Amino acid sequence: MRCGKPLADKRMEYCGDCSRKKHAFTQGKALWVYEDGVKASIYRFKYQDRREYARVYAEEIVKAHGGFIRSRHIQAILPVPLHKKRRRERGYNQAELLAKELGKLLGIPVYTDLFIRVRNTRPQKMLNDAERKNNLKEAFKITENIVQLKYILVVDDIYTTGSTLDAAAAALKEAGAAEVYTCCIGIGSDS
Ligand SMILES: [Zn+2]
After folding, report:
1. 184: which DSSP letter?
2. Which of 13, 66, 149, 167 could form a disulfide with 62 if both were Cys (CB 3.0 to 4.6 A apart)?
3. In a domain, 7, yes or no
């Protein structure tokens, strides 16, 4: 009911992680558990230029969660930005490709430069949970006045600890957003 992780025990509302800590985002949805084929697919999407996957992911997300997204009156879809340097190296931001396809399918405006990463963060996978949080502190900056945007969907490729999306949601709420929802392609299972 919070991060969108599928739970083995269907009677539970929150995963272990979400029962322990409070997230800045309201609720999240994920398409698939991040394992095997999904892992390989996202890897190609991210690092091997398979940009066309964005359309397929978006179609599947709309099939699975379109009703949820529509019911939340989302006014804007925002991709989690990459730092400029990393974007330059990669040539594209995979979250942005996904956000754009989702926006097209759902008829919701996509804003690609409303928030930016303000400093180069160390790769998250090198860090533990506490370090991740610190690593992302004030890592997002809102570039424009967004007080008219109350309901926002933030899109990323993978949900790991949620700390990136928390930092993004916190920045958006500080700027005036009422509810921030999240959507990812892959998410870990509750273990
Ligand atoms: Zn959770």
Report:
1. E
2. 66
3. no
